[in-house]
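Extended Data, panel c. Modelled sequence:
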Amino acid sequence: MPHAPKISFAKFSAPKKGAVVVVVNDDNALGDQARALDAAGIVPKAANIAEFKGKLASVLDVLTPEGTPFDRFAVVGAGPLDKRDEKAWMRIGGGAWSLVKKSADAAVILDMKDEEPDADAAAALALGLMLRAYGFDKYKTRKDKDESAKDKPVRVTIQCANPSKARKAFASVEAVAGGVNLARDLVNEPANVLGPVEFADRAKALEALGVKVEILTEKELKKLGMGALLGVAQGSARPPRLAVMQWNGGKAKDKPVAFVGKGVVFDSGGISIKPAAGMEDMKGDMGGAAAVAGLMHTLAARKAKANVVGIIGLVENMLDGNAQRPGDIVTSMSGQTIEVLNTDAEGRLVLADALWYCNERFAPQFMVNLATLTGAIMIALGQEHAGLFSNDDALAEHLSTAGTATGEKLWRMPLGPEYDKLIDSKNADMKNIGGRFGGAITAAQFLQRFVKETPWAHLDIAGTAMGSPSNDINQSWGSGFGVRLLDRLVRDNYEA
């Protein structure tokens, strides 16, 4: 990935070089500091000619004012004051990055006519800037001259009213950016590079931040009786792993909160093979596991005052002479038997054993699992919301609130006995598909059979974790969806 920008905060002063970005409200009015840099009144003239209205995250390049030392002068819109929340400031930061990404030095003048943005606004702008700056080009060997010449990160100074407070707020924000970008890296990696063992190694690297990490091998998974997870993995030459990550930042007596991720590093569909068109995208079928790993990075990096468990089931779903067959019956760790009618409904099998293991070992306050589980959720919700299923109204409400705050939006979907009976099997305790209709719901009903009475939520992120539409803070195929959402959930509700 390209160098992340190097961000600092400073008091207002006239920049000595580089690019300058000023922030304007929706009537293009400049604050006092920004107006001093535009003594010739170029911005209002340019805005009028370009019909620039200062809409949120819109951008405008203007001529560099004569007699100034900087080499670029640009404007980013902040939109109306009453809409300027955390998400808006992140989008403003993303817009600023689009203007300065080719510069060596840049200053963002956070000076508004209608308000004095606080330290949290400055930090949110910085987060948006860092997330927009992410790119994945590690396998590109041929680059143009501009790219080759730029071997140092862009230095961005955010000028604001209280730089010391902004710097303090940024420390937490930087941890979030690190977690999101770790999740993006994992999703973007090709499957030949990132198998179950390699993914487990990436999880193990979190020990450098103070996370306790255990990696369970195939031998240990067999001993635990994880027949559902192992059945998915048996067609691949690459052995499965279960990574167990613990961050103990809360009180010793406090029960942990737990997050479980589906980590199918490549999903061919198995014997129920997928169509060839688009199969390359199945390298991203571990988006849930990536989000959990990114979350654990964030919590550890910001020293979250909570006890948190992250568990990811890592397998590759391939087909060979040893692959699981449609019609096979497997025994899960719970002792419940599953008739596998479709080997492409494999993620729920991985999660079934991972959820049961998590519940039995840690007895958490709640469990939230994330998975790129069904195409059906994309038919229902498109790519703007992830599906939320839960057996607990309070947990569902906390998740929805965190989703609204971060812009990683959730939409609650139904559960119920009428749906649950659709996965009853004549030959086993259950089957792994429920028929053509309500596919995302019956998948959630399947998972619910492995959580007992523990408060639980399932997030189906198939439409939001990979290939989601580009926006002001993400230009990457892998979005890192879920890291900011779950960090906010922990921060707002479960920290000591």
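The two ends are 35 Å apart (CA to CA). This feature is highlighted in the accompanying rendering.
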